Amino acid sequence: MKLIRVENYEEMSSSAARLVEQQILDNSRSVLGLATGSTPLGLYEQLIRGVHERHISYKQVQTISLDEYCGLSADHPNSYRYFMNGHLFQHIDIQLDNTHIPDGTASPVEAECQRYEALIDRIGPPHLQILGLGTNGHIGFNEPGTPEASVTHCVKLEESTRKSNVRFFSDLDSVPMHAITMGIQSILKSEQILVLASGKKKAPAVKRFLAGGVSEDFPVSFLWKHPHVTLIVDKEAYSLAA
Ligand code: F6R
After folding, report:
1. Cβ atoms < 10 Å from Cβ of 35
2. Is the ipTM of this complex over 0.95?
3. How far is the CA of 38 from the centre of ligand 1 (A)?
4. CATH label of the domain that carries residue 228
5. Which of 83, 88, 99, 133 to mutate for ligand 1's pocket (most ligand atoms within 8 Å of CB)?
6. Quick check: CB of 199 below 6 Å from ligand 1?
């Protein structure tokens, strides 16, 4: 694994943006795996600036998002589709048809999971998968205990995950109980994986991840099995590992 240590959130975001943009310059038909949450927001701002300032084009790029809440439609302000449209897709020259996110309202949910995994195999796997890091080591919504062989599936969200995401909702009861997520196996199919971690809250998870060892109760640790992982951490996130 390649470790890139940077000073702060801004540097993490711009350093990640350079890697994403290089991927697109190398292959204009790149498939990007995308995460939501607070961590990649700065990266997405940088990518938007890159369209204007560095003439990066997303016309032929496809994206595959990691996850979506069950029960929230695309136009729900807390859905990950809404998030991705608002924070990235609407501001770059990507074709919306080329942006893929699980449908949180599809029924039965199992069929949607199968459709999504087949889509990953058909148009992907991503050349570059971006991941944030949950404080409990989750990646996507793969909570501790998720098996390595897991593909896209429906999960019951842990209380800790719902609590850390309540900041986007009016109250805890409004945070969905379930989500559709790419599995560990789906994520490991990617050619390259870029993990981003910023801030003190992530320091214990970064410390445990960097200590090595693969364990089902700490999902990000499965990334040790992948040959091309880059972790970008800022000073605070690295503070306990140092
Ligand atoms: C988001 C996702 C999650 C987040 C993780 C960190 O699509 O899959 O795994 O990356 O919960 O969230 P933030 O970035 O909000 O700290």
Report:
1. 23
2. yes
3. 7
4. 3.40.50.1360
5. 133
6. no
